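Q: How would the structure tokens look for this protein?
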Amino acid sequence: MSIRTGLTLSALAALGILAGGCSSGPSSPSRPGDVMLSSSLPAQAPACAHTGGTLAGNVAIELVQVATGFVDPIDVACPNDGSGRIFVCERPGIIKIIDKDGKVMDEPFYNNMANTAFQFLECGLYDIEFHPKFKENGLLYISYADMWFNGATFIVEYKVAAGDPNKCDMASARPILRIDFPYANHHGGKIVFGPDGYLYVGVGDGGWEGDVLDVGPYLGTWMGKMLRIDVSSKTTTTNYTVPASNPFVKAMQPKLMVLFGVSEQGFSEIKQHAKPEIWAYGLRNPWTFSFDRKTGDMYIADIGQNIWEEVNFQPASSKGGEDYGWNKMCGVHPFPIELEEKGVKTPVVGVLPIAEYDHKTNGICVIGMGVSRSADAPSLEGVYFFGDWGSGRLWGTKREDGKWVMQEMMNTSLNFTSGGEDSKGTIYVTSATSQYGTWNPFASAPGSVWKIVEKGKVPQGAKTAPRDAK
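A: Here is the predicted structure in token form.
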């Protein structure tokens, strides 16, 4: 079943297909470690941008095709090593290289099809990320769903093969983290090195729909969270350490019972079930997220449930610990949405998104791409781009005069799956006609890699993305 044929966006949304991330509702914390913060903010918060805005500076773009012929391309990344190479992850477990001349190399860089679980659309090879000092140490990190562990997410460290920079040394594999899930969807999968040198890991709520395990607000699990770990060191039991500055690193330490003499602030910091790796929580399925290379701010495209998609923002000054609202909110709306439809007054929970869009007319699955910082595209400076897998729409958002503005940049016939950037700050995106119900990705139409350029700067003879008047 293709998301472009047979079912409308609203019908797909009603079925719960491609559900993602939101939060709200009047329920209270149910277990130790649950946190619920509320305020009297209006449900339709003015800080959240919506479709229909116009960015300053006549921002206009085109998508230029870089390469095609990929099998379910699911991620794109570029090492900061001066080689000009682009690495493309194919969901079945293959990573291919586009060389500096734009040619896809015949031999793959990485092949892990024997271990990668890809029979379901939301599983497979997720991501490749290069160590901040990759040029010196040759270290890289790959995230994938492992078939032999029932689709658990594995994050594994590898080295580049000695004497061949276009080959991964498969024998160098060092497992960093394993995340088990009860269901086959909402695993997240993206990993990104932050400006602080730590590895951030986006983890979904574990699947089914509606957060049936109630993990979004619960600090006793990695699911529904953004994790932050240090892969440059290890302990006697783990191949990583937890940064001392993580918000809950001391929250679960054993405490003696004290009835009086402790401030309420002191008590609020005790979370005996909290996982120290947690950096932020209340996320549904943070399939894509990225950092602004200039400011250090983080953008999280959190896939929504049935009605709303959202983009969350964390400033570089953050000390972590944000609650992004799921499973009490979805966008700036309560979850379940019926509460809003019935006019039930509900609290606003957590940090509200900076942008949202609806499933009825705009799409069903938000895909983050990144912040443009390329000197070759000055009019795009500082714009965060994101699109939708189902509708092919592409937006840009930026804070102007203290308010977030969201402008639709293109309406294409592509199926966006992820985004990345090169050493210059140019944004690249992947597109794949992945389908629910089609278990053989090799039978799908070939996927492709595109890059965002200023309108009017398309290289002569280049292919641009088809625009779709949906």
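The first helix runs from residue 9 to 15.

The CA atoms of residues 193 and 199 lie 4 Å apart.

Upvote if useful.
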